[in-house]
Amino acid sequence: MEDQKSSFVEKVEKIKMPIRILILVGTLVLLAGAFTWFVYIPKTEAIQKKEKSVKELSRKLAEVEKEVRNREKFEEKFKQVNAQFDEALKILPDSKEIPSLLTNITRLGNEAGLQFLLFTPQNERGRGFYKEIPVSIRVEGTYHNVARFFDSVGRMDRIVNILNVSMKPEKVLSTELVTSCQAVTYQFTAEEPKQDDNKKKKKKRKK
């Protein structure tokens, strides 16, 4: 065994120095190449995949956070709109309240000192998501009484507009006036306006 070692050493010693250097450099290059190919490149690819995965997760996280913020804003806006809608409904009577509302109008007229000559509900008028409920009114009383009545109606919680007002003396030079007007209140309806048959027929013809 010692003879083999000494023989190997002798052979190495016989190799010229430039060749020894070339062998050393080649060995180092080979080891570096093996390390690069079997260790560095796989690790680098794995790191790049992880970085790409982290970037994608960060992007998705940012989108989720944005959606959460938008949802919070939407929910807050929805609450505000819903509150405004509820407030609007409070001043629009439903169908059950219409009779009592009309009774209150006549009560206010009587309290103002007016005598009702006419109080006739008219046909409802659809206006899309709400409808108008007009009432023809004719009363007798002084201008001051009529003004009190109109002011009281305007102070009601529910919306009631007085339209088409006309006044004329009961008799010539009389302070008693006969006042005709139309009281209009409004009722919310959840139904969308229906198209009439003519519009439907026109649409069918176009198709």
Summarize the structure in words.
- This protein is an alpha+beta fold and 207 residues long.
- The protein has 2 domains: 1-78; 98-188, 2-Layer Sandwich (Alpha-Beta Plaits), CATH 3.30.70.
- 59% of the residues lie in helices and 21% in strands.
- The chain contains 5 helices and 5 strands.
- It has helices at residues 2-14, 17-90, 98-111, 143-154, 197-206, and strands spanning 115-121, 125-126, 130-141, 160-169, 177-188.
- Strands 1, 2, 3, 4 and 5 form a 5-stranded antiparallel sheet that branches.
- Helix 3 (98-111) packs antiparallel against helix 4 (143-154).
How are the SSEs placed, and which strands pair?
Elements lengths: L1 H13 L2 H74 L7 H14 L3 E7 L3 E2 L3 E12 L1 H12 L5 E10 L7 E12 L8 H10 L1
Antiparallel strand pairs: 1-3, 2-3, 3-5, 4-5
Helix pairs in contact: 3-4
